[in-house]
Design brief:
The structure holds two protein chains of two kinds. By secondary structure, chain A is an alpha+beta fold. Chain A has helices spanning 47-55, 97-107, 112-125, 141-153, 171-188, 199-205, 223-228, 233-238, and strands at residues 7-18, 21-32, 36-40, 62-67, 70-71, 82-85, 159-163, 191-196, 208-213, 216-221, 243-253, 256-260, 266-270, 280-285, 290-293, 302-312, 315-322, 327-333, 348-353, 359-361. Chain A has a six-stranded mixed sheet with strand order 6-7-8-3-9-10, with helices on both faces. A five-stranded antiparallel sheet of chain A has the order 13-12-11-14-20. Chain A has a five-stranded antiparallel sheet with strand order 15-19-16-17-18, with no helix packed on it. The mean pLDDT of chain A is 88. Chain B has helices at residues 14-35, 52-59, 63-97, 104-112, 119-132, 139-163, 168-175, 180-209, 212-217, 225-234, 239-264. The longest helix of chain B has 35 residues, at 63-97. Chain B starts with 13 loop residues before the first helix and ends in a 5-residue tail after the last helix. In chain B, 32% of the residues are buried. The chains are: A alpha+beta, B mainly alpha. The A-B interface holds A 55-57, 76-78, 82-84, 86, 88, 90-94, 103-104, 107-108, 137, 151-152, 155 and B 166, 168-169, 171-180, 182, 186-187, 190-191, 267-269.
């Protein structure tokens, strides 16, 4: 197999315009075979538009979309070997669960009995065999979700497209479905393209994530890369919780930059290319990479005062006002409370940063 | 309870107004129905229960006239309802699934305007139209006129139904390898069916009951049930008119009831 053939989807310079409005600004990306790929971004970022272009529900204004090497952007939806799990499931209300799952197989020319047999197997895979004769309205949201999944997987598509399929479920069910989806993807070996605005969901399930905003791709990488090495302000802010601080760069060497915050506090953090001495940029540091002490641990400890402690279940978030400087959020895991102290509001403390935890961002 | 009661039932005079409205609306119908079972030839004196006027409708001196009129009425109603429902279904598909097109609001206005135009105006206009194109008045002119004025009645339940069907159903069908035509016949049509049936029944009843337009465009000697009844009444109200009216009323009630239940059976949820 050639290098190109092993890519499930190649999007090349895809542009989508609605009249004067450009929904997608020249996107190019490659989705590998057998990958759990996520398009992540806030609503209106173009992620669903891109998915619908792959499915065939939206025309491609410019550019190409290749499916395992074949151009598909001009084909009508029914000629594309991809299937979609819709946000509202779109189960056919007048058909039984079994008929729903068998629909795609029958449309592909399988005999009725063959389609039903295969549909039955799919229902077994999602553990809904006992509901085969029911109508969609008789099932719960979570069950309908699994039927939609079985229906889309039954014709063995080359790529499965999932359009925010978990957004209507409650938190507990959503968590369970995240694992089940991941499991199904491994089991079937089908490439999944998952659209979501939920960054936690994306981090949990994906092999790779494309972060999108305003019709542009902001960053593409593994969950760890996206979380730990955000490329710009948008990604750092959108993924997880972070402290975004304006800093002035005083010195750059060996990938590290010495900067100072407002109020004159000095800090050393990871630099990125294109940042020179004297530039004013943003620094991102995750709250869990900070810790508070009553005496400075290192030379760079930042002096401040505790404003508030907020209990958020697994962690405690401490809000700290630096002396004449910005505000910091410090997060302490409850499991670490043995060796890390939580200080009462009003306490004069020091905020310490793990080496390499801070990261400069190009805007 | 301390909450402010906005229930309309607590308003002063609610009960009295309601009863008055119901009385004005239904008392005449109730009286006609009761007196259709009167044994007497009088239309005001009750002389005991009898079915003689029902028998009279089918065997009495006017029975031939009524049979022909009933045949005309029902055949016209079936054909007019079928044609107008077909046109209305296509119109609704275009209006609801056609995306945003120019003059969409105008189109909707044009389809539903006939409901607002006074029927006498439509009747006169239709008559003038047939005359000016030299169409001889008769059975066919009634049929054509009925098809035309039934369209908005058929259109409303069908388009209301269609608006409730999200287009993701058709997309899902096409995503699952159905062609456009298959998506229409296998998914959209079954989902629209209650609206279509309901629209058909409504058009049927409207056609069956129509008097004004029919009276204008019918030729000499061609009668439908309403015009035949009217002709009969002009020579004095006889109890057989009450019997035939009651039958027509019951038939309409049955049809409207079916239409109601069909349109309520929501299979999109």
């Amino acid at each position: 197999m050639s290098e190109r053939m092993s890519n499930a989807i190649d999007v090349r310079n895809a542009v989508k315009r609605y009249g004067d409005f450009t929904a997608l600004k020249r996107i190019s990306l490659t989705i590998k075979d057998n990958e759990f790929f996520t398009l992540l971004g806030p609503s209106g970022c173009g992620k669903t538009t891109l998915l619908r272009m792959i499915a065939g529900f939206e025309d491609v204004t410019e550019g190409e979309i290749l499916l395992y090497g074949d151009e598909i952007e001009k084909l009508p939806p029914h000629q594309r070997p991809v299937n979609t799990v819709f946000q509202n499931y779109a189960l056919f209300p007048h058909m039984t669960i079994l008929e729903n799952v068998a629909f795609g197989l029958e449309m592909r020319g399988k005999s009725k009995s063959e389609a039903r047999t295969r549909a039955g197997e799919m229902l077994e895979l999602v553990q809904l065999s006992q509901f085969a004769a029911r109508k969609p309205s008789q099932l719960s949201g979570g069950q309908q979700q699994r039927v939609a999944l079985a229906r889309a997987l039954a014709p063995q598509p080359k790529v499965l497209l999932l359009d925010e399929p978990l957004s209507a479920l409650d938190l507990k069910l959503r968590k369970a479905m995240q694992l089940e989806l991941k499991h199904l993807q491994r089991e079937t070996g089908i490439t999944f393209i998952f659209v979501t605005h939920d960054q936690e969901e994306a981090l949990t399930m994906s092999d790779r994530i494309a972060v999108m905003s305003a019709g542009e791709m902001q960053q593409l990488g593994s969950p760890t890369e996206i979380y730990e090495q955000p490329r710009n302000m948008f990604v750092a802010d959108f993924i997880g919780e972070t402290n975004l601080l304006e800093v002035s760069v005083d010195q750059v060497m060996n990938g590290r930059a010495v900067c100072h915050l407002g109020g004159g506090h000095a800090l050393t953090c990871n630099s990125v290319e294109g940042i020179g001495v004297g530039s004013k940029v943003h620094m991102s540091v995750r709250p869990e990479r900070l810790f508070t002490t009553d005496v400075p641990v290192e030379g760079e400890a930042l002096k401040g005062r505790v404003v508030e402690n907020i209990f958020v279940g697994t962690d405690i978030s401490t809000i700290v006002d630096l002396a004449e400087g910005p505000q910091f959020i410090v997060r302490t895991s409850n499991s670490e409370r043995g060796n890390k102290r939580i200080f009462e509001p009003g306490s004069e403390i020091f905020v310490n940063m793990e080496l390499g935890a801070g990261r400069l961002l190009v805007d | 309870m301390a909450t402010v009661n906005n229930d309309i039932k607590t308003y002063k005079g609610f009960r009295a107004i309601t009863l008055l409205c119901l009385l004005v609306l239904y008392a005449p119908l109730v009286i006609v129905t009761i007196y259709s079972f009167n044994a007497s030839a009088s239309i005001t004196n009750w002389e005991g229960l009898s079915f003689r006027w029902y028998a009279d409708v089918f065997t009495g001196p006017e029975s031939d006239k009524f049979k022909v009129a009933a045949f005309n009425s029902f055949t016209i109603a079936i054909m007019a309802a079928t044609a107008s429902t077909t046109i209305a279904t296509l119109a609704a598909t275009a209006m609801v699934r056609g995306g945003k097109f120019k003059l969409r609001t105008v189109s909707f206005g044009l389809i539903s305007l006939p409901l607002m135009v006074p029927e006498i105006v439509t009747a006169v206009a239709t008559l003038i139209f047939f005359n000016s194109i030299g169409f001889t008045r008769g059975y066919l002119t009634i049929l054509v006129a009925h098809i035309a004025f039934c369209i908005p009645f058929a259109y409303l339940p069908i388009s209301a139904r269609m608006q409730g069907i999200e287009d993701s159903f058709e997309q899902a069908a096409m995503d699952l390898y159905a062609t456009k035509r298959q998506a229409f016949t296998k998914v959209l049509m079954p989902l629209m069916a209650p609206g279509i049936i309901s629209g058909f029944l409504l058009a049927f009843i409207v056609s069956l009951d129509d008097f004004i337009i029919t009276n204008f465009v019918k030729g000499a000697g061609v009668e439908t049930l309403p015009t035949a009844i009217f002709g009969s009444v002009k020579q004095g109200i006889k109890p057989n008119i009450m019997a035939i009216s009651t039958m027509l009323l019951s038939f309409s009630i049955v049809m409207v009831t079916i239409s109601y239940f069909v349109s309520k059976s929501d299979n999109t949820k």
